[in-house]
From TrEMBL, chain A:
Residue windows of the TPR repeats: 115-148, 555-588, 589-622, 623-656, 657-690, 725-758
UniProt-recorded name of the protein: Cell division cycle protein 27 homolog
SMART domains xrefs: TPR (SM00028)
Biased composition (Acidic residues): 792-801
GO cellular component: anaphase-promoting complex; cytoplasm
UniProt-listed PROSITE patterns: TPR, TPR_REGION
Principal location listed in the UniProt entry: nucleus
Residue numbers spanned by region Disordered: 251-270, 294-369, 792-813
Biased composition range(s): Polar residues: 296-312, 338-356
Cellular localization per UniProt: Nucleus
Organism expressing this protein natively: Gadus morhua (Atlantic cod)
Keywords, comma-separated and alphabetical: Nucleus, Repeat, TPR repeat
GO biological process: anaphase-promoting complex-dependent catabolic process; cell division; metaphase/anaphase transition of mitotic cell cycle; protein ubiquitination
Entry similarity comment: Belongs to the APC3/CDC27 family.
TrEMBL record, chain B:
Biased composition (Basic and acidic residues): 515-524
Ranges occupied by TPR repeats: 238-271, 340-373, 476-509
Alphabetically ordered keywords of this record: TPR repeat
Name by which UniProt lists this protein: Anaphase promoting complex subunit 7
GO BP: any one term: cell division
GO cellular-component term (any): anaphase-promoting complex
Chain positions covered by the region annotation Disordered: 515-566
Length: 813, 566
C-alpha cells in the first residue's frame, strides 16, 4: 500500500507545486481510488481545493468521515469559502451533544495548525456576530503564531485596541530555552554559514510559492547543489545511520528507503516522475538507497509543499525513527530538511549514553550541517542575484509583500525553533558548537527583524482602524524606504489621508501606488472616491478602464467604475455598477455604501436605507454606512434617529469633524442649540479649517439671534472659502437682520455673482422667504442640503465649492 | 412429461402470467371433469395458480386461492393415508409437495394478509403452524406481527427463536432490544458466533449501541456509535450514520443530526430510511427549499414509502399549508402505519387546524410507537394547552419528567407548562434555572426564561441572560428578544443593531421587522411624521424593487427585501 502511495503522493505534491492542478487532481484521484486511505482523501481534497474547486473538496470531505485534524481544517475552510458558516463551526468545534469544544481543546487537537484553525474560527464567529468570541480566537491564534497578519487585521477591524508590541513577539511558548549568549561572528566562513542558515527557509519557500515558473538556470543550480550536498554528506551520515541502527531503535530506517525506488519503477521510471525537482533528480542519480541525502531531499521537497513545517512532527522525529521511513507520506510527517539532517541530535538528548559514538565525534555533525548550509547558501545566492536581493541577512524579508513576509518568517521561525531545540539539546548533553549559537542569534535577529516590521505596520494599521489618521500616517511613513514604497503601505497612507479629507495628498499617494503596483486592486475604491471628490474625471475613467480590464471579479474594479459614472452624472449606470460590485462580492461593505449614496442622490431613500443597512450587516464598524443612515433619517426629518446613527458613526470614528458637524446640525434641529454649538466647537477644535463646521456654527448662531458672533464666524469662513456663494448669502442675511440693508444686498449680489446658475433660484427663494421671519431656520437648513444634493447639476467650476457641498454632505466618506 | 410438470417448469422459470392463464384453464378442466387430475395434481395446480396471482399483486385473490389449495391439501391427506400404504407414484410427487409444502403455503397466505394489513388473520394463519415446524422466516414474520399487535411476550420468544437459528439476524436483535430485552441477554445469544468469526468483534459494541438507543440513553448511544464509526472497518456506513443522526436528533442536537443525515444521503443517494426525520429537521430550521428538493428526489426513488410523503408534508406544514400537510401525512400513514414522523405531522397539522381532539389521538399513537421521542410529548402537551387542559398537560409533563429523567429538555417542557398557569410561575422559574444549569446554551430554555423575565419586567437580567446565550451561538430569536429588551430599557441604538442581526440571520422574521418598525415609530418626534412614514412604508419599497425589469436589480432586490419593507 505504502509502496504505491509514497511515490504517487510525492508526484502529486510535485504537480501541485508546479501549479499543474489537472495532473495533481488526476493522480490524486487515482491514488484515492487505489488505496482509499484518509491520507489519500486529504491529498485529493487538497488538490481540489488548490485548484480552486472548494465545493469539490467540500463534497468529498463531507461524504467521508474524516477524523484527522487536517481534514477537518480543510473541510471547515471549504465551508467558510462556500459560506456555510454554521457547518464550518460545527466541524471545528462541534463535539457530541451540543457541547462545544473549548479553544484549549482545539489547540491540543490541532497542534501546530491550531493558530490557523483559531483564526478561521474567529472569522466564523465574527461573521455570525459573536464578536467577543471571535476576538478571543484571533488573539489566541496570534499568541500561538505571531507571524499571522490576518487575525491581527481582523482584530483591528473589530475595533479591538491591541498593543502590537504584545502581539508580535515571541512568547515563551515559542522559545523553550532562553536565548544563548551572543557570540560575535569572528570567522568569515562561519558567518557565511549562518547567512545560509537563515536563508534556508526562504529557499524552501521559493520552491513552494514562487519561482518554479521559470528558469533552467535555477534548476541546474539546484540540482547541482543537492548533488554536491549528498555527495558531501554521504560518508558521514552513513556512520550516523549505523549508529542509530546499532542503537536498535528500529530497522525500518534502513529498510524503508528502498521503497520509493520500487514505487518509482511503478510509475515508469524516475524521469517520468520529475525531471524538474532537484530531489528527484538526485534520486535518480543516487545509487545507494540508504543515503540520507536522498531522505533529506525527498522530505525537503515534500516539505516545500507545507508552508509551515510542523513543530510537532519535528519533535516526533526524535523518539521514533520510523518516521524517517514515512517521510514520503508528505502529510503526517514533514520533517523540515534541516532537522532532518540533524535527525539524530534530539535523540542524543533523550538517550545520551546510547549515542555516545555520535557524540564522541562532534565534528561529525558540524561539517554535515555546514555542507548543507553551504549548498543552500549557494543556491540562495543565485536566488538573490536574480531577485536583486541584498545578501545581508537582515534584509531577507525586505522586498516581500506583507503576507509573504509573514510566511517566510513563519518557516523561519520554525526552523529557528528546531535549531534552538536541537542546539539546546546538544548543548545540554555536550556543550559545544559555537556556530550553533551564532546561527541561533542570527536566526533570532532575523525573526526579530520581521517581528519588528510587523509591529510597526501593525501599529500603523491599528491607528488607521481607530481613525487616528495622523498617527497612522506618521507611523507608516516612518517605515524603511523599501517597505514604504510598497503598495500595501502606500495604500494605507492614502486611505489615512482620505479619511482626513486631504484628497490631494491622498491622490498623490495613490497615484504612487498605481505607479509601483499597477496590479493592485485593494484600496483602489478609495482612490476612486478620492478622484471623485477631486472631480478628476479623466483619471477616474482611466483607472476604471484599467481595473475592469484587469480583474472583472473584484468588487473594487466595479466600485471604481460606478464612481466614474457617478461623477458623470450617470446615476443609473453607476447604480448598476455598484450592484455588480455587490454581486461579485456580497461581503464588500463599501460597495453597499456607495450604492446607498447613489440611491440617496436619486432620492430613492428606502433603497438607500436598505443599502446602508446591508453595509452595516456586512461590517458593523463601517462608519460611512452609519453616517449614510443618519443622513437619510435626517432627510426624512427623523432627527433623533439621525442623531443616534451619527453618534454611532462618531463612536467608530471619533476624530471625524464631519460627523461632529452633522451631529451638531441634528441637535440644532432637535432644538438643542446649546449642545449643538458645543458639538460644533468640538468639531472645529479637531479640524479648525473645516468650512462646513464653521458654516453650520454660523447659521446656528444666526438662528439663535447671536448675530455678531455669526458675523464674525462668517468673516473667518470667508477667509477659508472666499468663493463660496452661500457664505455671502448668509452674511447678507445677518446684515439684513442687523438692519444694514445695503450691506445685506451687497452680499446677496456677491452670492449671486459667484453662483449665477445653480443655486440661483433657491437663493432668490430664500431672499423672498427672508421676509417671512417665522420659518427662517428650516429654510436655511433645507436650502443647504438641497443645494448639496443639487450641486452636481449645477456644474461647479470651483473646486472649493464642490468640496463644500458634494463632498461634505453627500459622499465625504 | 405431463401438463402439470410443464406448468411447474413455467412457474419455476418465472413465467407467471403464462402460468396464470394455463393453470386457470386446467383448473376449469379439472372441475368439469374431476377424473382428469389426481387430487395432489390439483393441489399443485392451485398453488401455481395462486402464486401467479400473488405475483400479479392481487393479494386478496391470491390468499383465497392459497386457502383453496390448503383445502385441497386436506383432501389429499385424508386419501393419502390409503394411498401411501398402496405406494405408487407418490414418491415422484413428494419432492414437489415438499417444495409446495403446506407451511410454505401458509406463509404465503400470511404474507398476503400482512400486505392487506389484516394482521390478525395473518397471525391466526401462522399460529396454526406447529412451533416445531416454523422456519426462521415464519418466526420473524410472526414476531414482527406480534410486536405490532402489542403481544410483547410472544414477540420476544419468536425473535429469540429466530436468533437461535440464525445468530446474525440483526433485525431480530433490534426487535428484541426495542422490546426492552436487556442488551446483555441478546449479546449472550450471539456470543458464540462473534467469537468464532474473525473481524466481527464490533458486533457486541453494535448490540450495546442499539441497546442504549432503545433504552433512551442518548448520550451513551452516541458515544458507542461514534466509537463504532471510528473503527476504520465501519467508517462511512450509511446505516450507522442514520442511526447516529437519529440519536443526535433525539438528544436535541439538531446541528450534528443534520450533518450526519447529510453525510449519509451523500454517501447513498437512494437512502430512504430516516430521511423523514432529516426533512423534518431541515424544515424546522427553515431550509424549505432544500426540503422541497429532497422530497422531490425521494419521490423519484419510491412513492410507496412514507418518507417522501412526510417530507413534502413537512414542507407544506412549514409553509403554513396545513390542510395539504394533513393530506400528505394521512397518505404517509396509509403507506406505513408505523411512521412516527407521519403521525406527528398529521397531528401537528390537525392541531393547527383547530381539530385538537383528533390531533391528540395521533400524538398518542406516536407516543406509543416511540416512547423515547420528546417531540411526541411536546405535541401532545401543546394540544392540551390549546384546548385549555392545563391539568392534563401538567400531568403529561410530570410524566415525561419522571420517565425520561431530569434533563434540560424535560425540565424545559415542564417549565413551559408551568408558565401557562399563573400559580406556578415560581416553579417554572426554578425549573428553567435548573435546565439552564445543565445546558446553558439550550435555546428553548433561554427563550422561555427570557419570556418570563420580560413578563416580570426584569429587563437587565434578561439582557444579561440573552447576551450570555448569544456568546456561544447566534440565533435569530435570541437576537430579536434581546432587541425587544433593549427597546424596553430605551437603548435604541443597540436594539437596532440586534434587530438587524436577527434579520440578517433570518430575513423573513416578521417579529424583528415589527420590532424595528415599532421602535422607529417610537423614535419619531411627532405623530404627524409617524403617519407619513406609515404611508411611505406601504407605498414604496418592495413592489418597486421586484418590478425592476433588470435582472440584476431583481436578484439584488431579494437581498434587500427585508430592508425594503421598512
Amino acid at each position: 500500500m505504502t509502496v504505491l502511495q509514497e511515490p504517487v503522493q510525492a508526484a502529486v505534491w510535485q504537480a501541485l507545486n508546479h501549479y499543474a492542478y489537472m495532473d495533481a487532481v488526476f493522480l490524486a484521484e487515482r491514488l484515492y481510488a487505489e488505496v482509499g486511505s484518509e491520507e489519500a482523501l486529504y491529498l485529493l481534497a487538497t488538490c481540489y481545493f488548490r485548484s480552486g474547486k472548494a465545493y469539490k473538496a467540500y463534497r468529498l470531505l463531507k461524504t467521508h468521515t474524516c477524523s484527522t485534524p487536517q481534514c477537518r481544517y480543510l473541510l471547515a475552510k471549504c465551508c467558510v469559502d462556500l459560506s456555510k458558516l454554521a457547518e464550518g463551526e460545527q466541524v471545528l468545534t462541534g463535539g457530541v451533544l451540543n457541547k462545544q469544544k473549548s479553544q484549549d481543546d482545539i489547540i491540543t487537537e490541532f497542534g501546530d495548525s491550531a493558530s490557523f484553525t483559531l483564526s478561521l474560527l474567529g472569522h466564523i464567529y465574527c461573521k455570525t456576530d459573536r464578536v467577543a468570541k471571535g476576538s478571543e480566537c484571533f488573539q489566541k491564534s496570534l499568541n500561538l503564531n505571531p507571524f499571522l497578519w490576518s487575525p491581527f487585521q481582523s482584530l483591528c477591524h473589530l475595533g479591538e485596541k491591541l498593543d502590537p508590541d504584545q502581539v508580535f513577539r515571541l512568547s515563551s511558548l515559542h522559545i523553550p530555552v532562553a536565548p544563548p549568549p551572543p557570540i560575535s561572528p569572528a570567522q568569515n566562513p562561519s558567518h557565511r554559514l549562518d547567512t545560509a542558515l537563515m536563508e534556508t527557509p526562504q529557499d524552501t519557500l521559493e520552491l513552494n510559492r514562487l519561482n518554479l515558473e521559470s528558469s533552467n538556470g535555477k534548476l541546474t543550480s539546484d540540482s547541482t547543489v543537492s548533488y554536491i550536498d549528498s555527495s558531501l554528506i554521504s560518508p558521514d551520515p552513513c556512520s550516523l545511520l549505523a549508529n542509530t541502527v546499532s542503537m536498535g531503535s528500529t530497522g525500518s530506517l534502513l529498510g524503508k528507503p528502498n521503497k520509493p525506488k520500487s514505487g518509482r519503477s511503478l510509475l515508469g521510471g524516475p524521469a517520468a516522475l520529475s525531471p524538474l525537482t532537484p530531489s528527484f533528480g538526485i534520486l535518480a542519480l543516487d545509487p545507494s538507497p540508504g543515503d540520507p541525502g536522498y531522505l533529506q531531499n525527498y522530505s525537503g521537497s515534500l516539505d516545500a509543499q507545507q508552508t509551515a513545517p510542523s513543530k510537532k512532527s519535528v519533535s516526533r522525529i526524535g523518539p521514533s525513527k520510523s518516521v524517517f521511513g514515512q517521510s514520503g507520506n508528505g502529510r503526517e510527517v514533514l520533517p523540515i530538511p534541516f532537522s532532518q539532517s540533524q535527525g539524530s541530535a534530539p535523540h542524543s538528548s533523550t538517550s545520551p549514553q546510547v549515542l555516545s559514538p555520535t557524540l564522541v565525534a562532534p565534528p561529525n555533525i558540524q561539517p554535515r550541517r555546514s555542507t548543507r548550509l553551504f549548498t543552500s547558501a549557494s543556491s540562495t545566492a543565485k536566488e538573490n542575484s536574480k531577485k536583486l536581493k541584498m545578501k545581508f541577512p537582515t534584509k531577507i524579508p525586505n522586498r516581500k509583500t506583507k503576507c509573504k513576509a509573514a510566511k517566510t518568517a513563519n518557516s523561519n521561525l520554525n526552523e529557528s525553533l528546531d535549531i534552538l531545540k536541537l542546539d539546546s539539546s546538544m548543548n545540554d548533553s555536550k556543550g559545544l558548537s559555537t556556530p550553533g549559537y551564532q546561527s541561533i542569534t542570527l536566526q533570532r535577529a532575523a525573526t526579530d527583524m520581521v517581528l519588528y516590521m510587523l509591529r510597526e505596520l501593525g501599529r500603523g494599521y491599528q491607528a488607521l482602524c481607530c481613525y487616528n489618521c495622523q498617527e497612522a500616517i506618521s507611523i507608516l511613513s516612518s517605515v524603511p524606504a523599501h517597505h514604504y514604497n510598497t503598495g500595501w503601505v502606500l495604500t494605507h497612507i492614502g486611505r489615512a489621508y482620505f479619511e482626513l479629507a486631504e484628497y490631494t495628498q491622498a491622490e498623490r499617494v495613490f497615484s504612487e501606488v498605481r505607479r509601483i503596483e499597477a496590479y493592485r486592486v485593494e484600496g483602489m475604491e478609495i482612490y476612486s472616491t478620492t478622484l471623485w471628490h477631486l472631480q478628476k474625471d479623466v483619471a477616474l475613467s482611466a483607472l476604471s478602464k484599467d481595473l475592469t480590464d484587469m480583474d472583472r471579479l473584484c468588487p473594487q474594479a466595479w466600485c471604481v467604475a460606478g464612481n466614474c459614472f457617478s461623477l458623470q452624472q450617470e446615476h443609473d449606470i453607476a447604480i448598476k455598477f455598484f450592484q455588480r460590485a455587490i454581486q461579485v462580492d456580497p461581503g464588500f461593505a463599501y460597495a453597499y455604501t456607495l450604492l446607498g449614496h447613489e440611491f440617496a442622490l436619486t432620492e430613492e431613500l428606502d433603497r438607500a436605507l436598505a443599502c446602508f443597512r446591508n453595509a452595516i450587516r456586512v461590517n458593523n464598524r463601517h462608519y460611512n454606512a452609519w453616517y449614510g443612515l443618519g443622513m437619510i433619517y435626517y432627510k426624512q426629518e427623523k432627527f433623533s434617529l439621525a442623531e443616534i446613527h451619527f453618534k454611532k458613526a462618531l463612536s467608530i470614528n471619533p476624530q471625524s469633524s464631519v460627523m461632529l458637524c452633522h451631529i451638531g446640525v441634528v441637535q440644532h434641529a432637535l432644538k438643542k442649540s446649546d449642545s449643538a454649538l458645543e458639538t460644533l466647537n468640538r468639531a472645529i477644535g479637531i479640524d479648525p479649517k473645516n468650512p462646513l463646521c464653521k458654516f453650520h456654527r454660523a447659521s446656528i448662531l444666526f438662528a439663535n439671534d447671536k448675530y455678531k458672533a455669526a458675523l464674525q464666524e462668517l468673516e473667518e469662513l470667508k477667509q477659508i472659502v472666499p468663493k463660496e456663494s452661500l457664505v455671502y448669502f448668509l452674511i447678507g442675511k445677518v446684515y439684513k437682520k442687523l438692519g444694514q440693508t445695503h450691506l445685506a444686498l451687497m452680499n446677496f449680489s456677491w452670492a449671486m455673482d459667484l453662483d449665477p446658475k445653480g443655486a440661483n433660484n433657491q437663493i432668490k427663494e430664500a431672499i423672498d422667504k427672508r421676509y417671512l421671519p417665522e420659518d427662517e431656520e428650516p429654510v436655511t437648513e433645507d436650502f443647504l442640503y438641497d443645494s448639496a444634493a443639487d450641486v452636481e447639476e449645477s456644474s461647479m467650476t470651483d473646486a472649493d465649492d464642490s468640496q463644500l457641498h458634494t463632498a461634505e454632505s453627500d459622499d465625504v466618506l | 412429461m405431463n401438463v402439470i410438470e410443464h406448468v411447474r417448469d413455467m412457474s419455476a422459470a418465472g413465467l407467471h402470467s403464462n402460468v396464470r392463464i394455463m393453470s386457470s384453464l386446467l383448473l376449469t378442466m379439472s372441475s368439469n371433469n374431476p377424473e382428469l387430475f389426481s387430487p395432489s395434481q390439483k393441489y399443485q395446480l392451485l398453488v401455481y395458480h395462486a402464486d401467479a396471482i400473488f405475483h400479479d399483486k392481487e393479494y386478496r385473490n391470491a390468499a383465497c386461492k392459497y386457502s383453496m389449495a390448503l383445502q385441497q391439501k386436506k383432501v389429499i391427506s385424508k386419501t393419502s393415508k390409503v394411498r401411501t400404504s398402496t405406494g405408487g407414484g407418490a414418491s415422484n410427487n413428494s419432492c414437489c409437495l415438499n417444495f409446495l409444502s403446506q407451511i410454505e403455503v401458509k406463509y404465503k397466505i400470511a404474507e398476503c394478509y400482512t400486505i392487506l394489513k389484516l394482521d390478525k388473520d395473518a397471525i391466526a394463519v401462522l399460529d396454526g403452524i406447529p412451533s416445531r415446524q416454523r422456519t426462521p422466516k415464519i418466526n420473524m414474520m410472526l414476531a414482527n406481527l406480534y410486536r405490532k399487535a402489542g403481544q410483547e411476550r410472544s414477540a420476544v420468544s419468536s425473535y429469540k427463536e429466530v436468533l437461535r437459528q440464525c445468530p446474525l439476524a440483526l433485525d431480530a436483535i433490534i426487535g428484541l432490544l426495542s422490546l426492552s430485552v436487556k442488551g446483555a441477554e441478546v449479546a449472550s445469544m450471539t456470543m458464540d458466533v462473534i467469537q468464532s468469526i474473525p473481524n466481527l468483534d464490533w458486533l457486541s459494541v453494535w448490540i450495546k449501541a442499539y441497546a442504549f438507543v432503545h433504552a433512551g440513553d442518548n448520550q451513551r448511544a452516541i458515544n458507542t456509535i461514534c466509537s463504532l464509526e471510528k473503527k476504520s472497518l465501519l467508517r462511512d456506513n450509511v446505516d450507522l450514520l442514520v442511526s447516529l443522526a437519529d440519536v443526535y436528533f433525539r438528544a436535541g442536537d439538531t446541528k450534528n443530526s443534520i450533518l450526519k443525515f447529510e453525510q449519509a444521503q451523500m454517501l447513498d443517494p437512494y437512502l430512504i430510511k430516516g430521511m423523514d426525520v432529516y426533512g423534518y429537521l431541515m424544515a424546522r430550521e427553515g431550509h424549505l427549499e432544500d426540503v422541497e428538493v429532497l422530497g422531490g428526489r425521494l419521490f423519484n426513488i419510491s412513492d410507496q414509502h412514507a418518507e417522501p410523503w412526510v417530507i413534502s408534508g413537512c414542507h407544506s406544514f412549514y409553509s403554513k399549508r396545513y390542510s395539504r400537510a394533513l393530506y400528505l401525512g394521512a397518505k404517509a400513514i396509509q403507506l406505513n402505519s408505523n411512521s412516527v414522523q407521519a403521525l406527528l405531522l398529521k397531528g401537528a397539522a390537525l392541531r393547527n387546524m383547530g381539530r385538537v381532539q383528533e390531533a391528540i389521538i395521533h400524538f398518542r399513537e406516536a407516543m406509543r410507537l416511540a416512547p423515547c421521542r420528546l417531540d411526541c410529548y411536546e405535541g401532545l402537551i401543546d394540544c392540551y394547552l390549546a384546548s385549555n387542559g392545563i391539568r392534563e398537560a401538567m400531568g403529561m409533563a410530570n410524566n415525561i419528567y419522571k420517565t425520561l429523567g431530569a434533563n434540560a429538555q424535560t425540565l424545559t417542557i415542564l417549565a413551559t407548562v408551568c408558565l401557562e398557569d399563573p400559580v406556578t410561575q415560581e416553579k417554572a422559574k426554578a425549573l428553567l434555572d435548573k435546565a439552564l444549569a445543565q445546558r446553558p446554551d439550550y435555546t428553548k430554555a433561554v427563550v422561555k426564561k427570557a419570556e418570563l423575565l420580560s413578563r416580570e419586567q426584569k429587563y437587565e437580567e434578561g439582557i444579561a441572560l440573552l447576551r450570555n446565550a448569544l456568546a456561544n451561538q447566534s440565533d435569530c430569536v435570541l437576537h430579536r428578544m434581546l432587541g425587544d429588551f433593549l427597546v424596553a430599557v430605551n437603548d435604541y441604538q443597540e436594539a437596532m443593531d440586534q434587530y438587524s442581526i436577527a434579520l440578517s440571520l433570518d430575513p423573513n422574521d416578521q417579529k424583528s421587522l415589527e420590532g424595528m418598525q415599532k421602535m422607529e415609530k417610537e423614535e419619531s418626534p411627532t405623530d404627524a411624521t409617524v403617519e407619513l412614514d406609515g404611508d411611505d412604508m406601504e407605498g414604496s419599497g418592495e413592489e418597486g424593487d421586484l418590478e425592476g425589469s433588470d435582472s440584476e436589480a431583481a436578484q439584488w432586490a431579494d437581498q434587500e427585501q427585508w430592508f425594503g419593507m421598512q
